[in-house]
Task: inverse folding
């Protein structure tokens, strides 16, 4: 008898598969997908979240499925770590599924049937990745997830740019999968079977353990979007339909974090501090790179995609610090680092899902995705504007929302550095905290830019005609999409204001992996105060913070109202002496980023073309490119081209030559074998 | 006495098989090639019959009957019909250098024997000496496929290669299981028909059966 949470989670997976299959049924499928599939899928997501949350409080349960190859059945297992990620998947996908029901309403039946199939297979395979308890099921689910998301990314495959983005995604996803497969191969070592229990009991020499760690880190990192394997992310996320972007950015790249934690902490085990330093260096680079490039974007979805890169960096910073502390024999601080990383994983899923849904709403209702075409949306889309504001505040790590809690916890981990024995590591750990602080400030700047340019100010006339035939509704998006955003916005607030509840949940997850949870001091301080170590060192109470903020705002409003008598004088703003003003004269997204472009100049690869002095229609073009393309990707592409051209010489076109090849091979083999 | 006589007869037939393989390598006329192919099939069937008789392996009688039906009668008849329908009865392949090909062929036979000697010493069957010849037949047929420019001789080379394999199977190990032989025989028959269809398509496309024209198909 399979225990209840595991059976329930499997039932949700089956429901998702069935919904996907039903969407494909001819004739009835499209209207089924349009009316019922997405809401039902959302219900399954909600159930999955509940089962996941319950599993955290129960002992790990496992089962063997009646599927798979003969002699190699699929194993599933639900432990606290898997439960936490199932909770994340279920909770976030609920909102996205409801939103998708509204977003995809106007699709043609053929496309809708395919989207329905791919969407639910994508969800189900993500759940299976988390539930898998053997390398075989894990890889099958992992590849299913990659393929389903590839087809979702290339929904608009008529555009060659989108096909290109899809190809890049598939390529890097396969590189990553290959690395993960090799990692499992090392852990297996030719003995026993491929269940995770067998893999984790393998005894590796330190060298092989390090190789396995590097393979797992880069394999999962490719999916997570860390540098230098991030190149697919800013291409694929904007290419996909917005609910899919939300799902990919919110949930899919988190399965990579899950895989990393599962393989490094659970399967390889014996975490070494050197590994942590490697993770930290890459994480710091990823964080800074992501936010600096996000500041330069004017395509809203691309900007959000770069922020996903940044946030993966923040998660990895927590993870890396945790590994450093565990490697030096401080499991309590290590557990805190893991909690910070997992908390930020959940937070990022919630607010990035919200922001992508918001971007999707703007695209759906207005047909706009370029920030330089937006403006004044707060007046026509007030609900979306409100939810987007919550998301923007959360990602900017402002209290009392959730982004602040996890970044603050990450800082607290860094502040534990004095307990470390190694002087060099002790002194560089604060540098990574400084990186995080810089990234946080730049993120805030970036979202001031996004919100200011998209929602405030005057509407700009779009330079590109609207393609989407369902756009131009004139007002805000439909109730389903609003509900999806409201759900996630509520999540941002709840996770931000009541962090202690989540902390106790995560403490169980961390304890199941590191063997030690937080100190009793930390847990004994009650629901009001979040205390990572001891109350003497640091504590934070978002509720009090919220009360103070609300109080100060109310008081100020009251005072202003009292002493100002509510006299309002309406007049034109000062026009700087220019009699004629158009909305195009407003600050643009590119202009807003100019100071950063100036300060961090060497990081960007800028290509400017300035108009001549006597040009009748002057145009100023500025292109910012990713240096990684020139450092890594293009040389590899050229090498592959070169090698392929040499190999292609074999193709002579004459059958005699081909026969000769087989003949010589045969002779050589005969000589070699005999 | 019976076994050794049968063994000598098998060796004789093996030598005949090798001779026919060389003859095919040097034969320029398509029609004669088909006739040689039929002779090779006949020798193969006779040797199979001898092995069956001397060892008492009953299933080899079926193999022999199959060889006669397919390789002496049916496939040569199909090829004849094809040649008639395609009207290439008098085709002669000129641009092949027969003496060089023969020299390469001799080198291949030496190689095959060198290769087969250690293997046949492990064997205890009466016909163990013929393994080298069978291998040589396979290699010579392969060589024929390489040097020919026209489609039909290439297909005959392919079929002759299968003859060599069949001979290796019967002489060295007293035949494969009957099911396998039936399957292989069916494959060869189906292959012949498919090749026949391809010939028509190739000629329709290029107005010739010369495979040099197919070099255009290369992707640049």
Result:
């Amino acid at each position: 008898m399979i225990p209840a949470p595991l059976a329930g989670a499997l039932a949700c997976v089956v429901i998702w598969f069935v919904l996907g299959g039903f969407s494909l049924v001819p004739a009835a499928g499209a209207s089924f997908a349009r009316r019922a599939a997405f809401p039902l899928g959302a219900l399954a997501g909600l159930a999955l979240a509940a089962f996941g949350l319950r599993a955290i409080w129960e002992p790990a349960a496992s089962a063997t499925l009646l599927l798979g190859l003969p002699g190699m059945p699929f194993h599933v297992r639900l432990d606290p770590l898997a439960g936490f990620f199932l909770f994340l998947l279920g909770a976030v996908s609920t909102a996205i599924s409801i939103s998708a029901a509204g977003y995809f309403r106007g699709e043609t039946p053929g496309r809708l049937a395919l989207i329905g199939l791919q969407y639910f297979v994508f969800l189900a395979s993500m759940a299976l990745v988390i539930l898998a308890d053997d390398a075989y099921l894990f890889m099958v689910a992992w590849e299913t997830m990659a393929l389903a998301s590839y087809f979702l990314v290339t929904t608009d495959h008529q555009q060659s740019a989108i096909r290109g983005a899809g190809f890049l995604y598939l390529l890097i996803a396969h590189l990553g999968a290959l690395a993960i497969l090799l990692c499992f191969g090392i852990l297996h070592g030719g003995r026993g079977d491929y269940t995770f229990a067998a893999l984790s009991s393998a005894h590796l020499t330190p060298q092989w353990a390090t190789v396995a760690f590097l393979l797992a880190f880069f394999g999962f990192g490719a999916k997570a979007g860390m540098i230098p394997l991030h190149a697919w992310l800013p291409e694929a996320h904007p290419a996909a339909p917005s609910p899919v972007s939300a799902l990919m950015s919110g949930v899919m790249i988190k399965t990579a974090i899950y895989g990393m934690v599962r393989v490094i902490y659970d399967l390889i085990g014996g975490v070494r501090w050197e590994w942590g330093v490697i993770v930290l260096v890459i994480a710091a680079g990823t964080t800074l790179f992501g936010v600096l490039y996000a500041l330069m974007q004017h395509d809203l979805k691309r900007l959000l995609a770069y922020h996903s890169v940044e946030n993966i960096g923040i998660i990895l910073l927590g993870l890396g610090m945790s590994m450093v502390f565990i490697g030096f024999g401080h499991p309590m601080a290590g557990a805190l680092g893991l909690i910070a990383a997992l908390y930020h994983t959940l937070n990022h899923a919630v607010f990035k899902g919200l922001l992508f849904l918001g971007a999707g709403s703007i695209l759906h209702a207005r047909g706009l995705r370029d920030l330089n075409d937006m403006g004044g949306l707060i007046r026509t889309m007030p609900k979306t504007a409100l939810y987007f504001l919550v998301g923007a505040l959360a990602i900017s790590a402002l209290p009392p929302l959730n982004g602040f809690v996890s970044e603050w916890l990450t800082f607290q981990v860094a502040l534990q550095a004095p307990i470390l024995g190694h002087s060099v590591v002790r002194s560089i750990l604060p540098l990574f905290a400084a990186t995080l602080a810089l990234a946080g400030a730049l993120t805030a700047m970036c979202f001031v830019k996004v919100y200011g340019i998209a929602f405030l100010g005057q509407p700009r006339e779009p330079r590109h005609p609207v393609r989407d035939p369902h756009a131009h509704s004139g007002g805000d998006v439909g109730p389903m999409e609003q509900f999806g955003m409201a759900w996630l916005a509520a999540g941002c607030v709840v996770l931000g204001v009541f962090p202690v509840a989540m902390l106790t949940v995560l403490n169980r997850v961390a304890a199941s992996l590191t063997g030690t949870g937080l100190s009793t001091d930390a847990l004994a301080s009650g629901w009001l105060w979040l205390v990572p170590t001891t109350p003497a060192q640091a504590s934070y109470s978002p509720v009090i913070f919220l009360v103070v903020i609300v109080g100060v705002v109310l008081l100020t409003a009251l005072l202003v109202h009292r002493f100002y008598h509510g006299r309002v004088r309406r007049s034109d703003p000062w026009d700087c002496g220019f009699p004629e003003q158009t909305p195009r004269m407003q600050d643009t997204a590119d202009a807003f980023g100019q100071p950063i472009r100036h300060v961090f100049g060497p990081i960007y690869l800028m290509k400017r073309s300035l108009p001549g002095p006597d040009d009748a229609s002057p145009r100023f073009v500025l292109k910012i490119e990713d240096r990684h393309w020139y450092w890594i990707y293009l040389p590899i592409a050229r090498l592959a081209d070169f090698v392929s051209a040499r190999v292609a010489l074999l193709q002579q076109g004459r059958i005699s030559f081909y026969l000769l090849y087989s003949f010589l091979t045969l002779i050589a083999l005969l000589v070699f074998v005999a | 006495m019976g076994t050794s006589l049968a063994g000598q007869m098998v060796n004789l037939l093996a030598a005949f098989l090798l001779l026919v393989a060389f003859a095919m390598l040097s034969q320029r006329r398509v029609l004669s090639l088909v006739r040689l192919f039929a002779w090779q099939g006949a020798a193969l069937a006779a040797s199979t019959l001898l092995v069956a008789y001397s060892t008492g392996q009953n299933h080899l009688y079926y193999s022999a009957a199959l060889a006669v039906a397919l390789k002496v009668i049916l496939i040569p008849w199909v090829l004849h019909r094809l040649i008639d329908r395609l009207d290439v009865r008098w085709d002669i392949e000129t641009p092949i250098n027969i003496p060089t090909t023969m020299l390469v062929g001799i080198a291949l036979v030496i190689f095959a024997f060198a290769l087969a000697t250690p293997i046949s010493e492990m064997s205890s069957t009466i016909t163990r000496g013929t393994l080298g010849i069978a291998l040589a037949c396979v290699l010579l047929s392969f060589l024929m496929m390489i040097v020919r420019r026209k489609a039909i001789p290439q297909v005959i080379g392919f079929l002759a290669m299968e003859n060599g394999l069949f001979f290796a199977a019967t002489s060295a190990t007293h035949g494969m299981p009957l099911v396998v032989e039936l399957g292989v025989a069916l494959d060869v028959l189906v292959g012949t028909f498919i090749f026949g269809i391809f010939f028509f398509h190739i000629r329709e496309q290029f107005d010739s059966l010369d495979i040099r024209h197919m070099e255009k198909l290369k992707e640049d």
Summary: The mean pLDDT of chain A is 87.
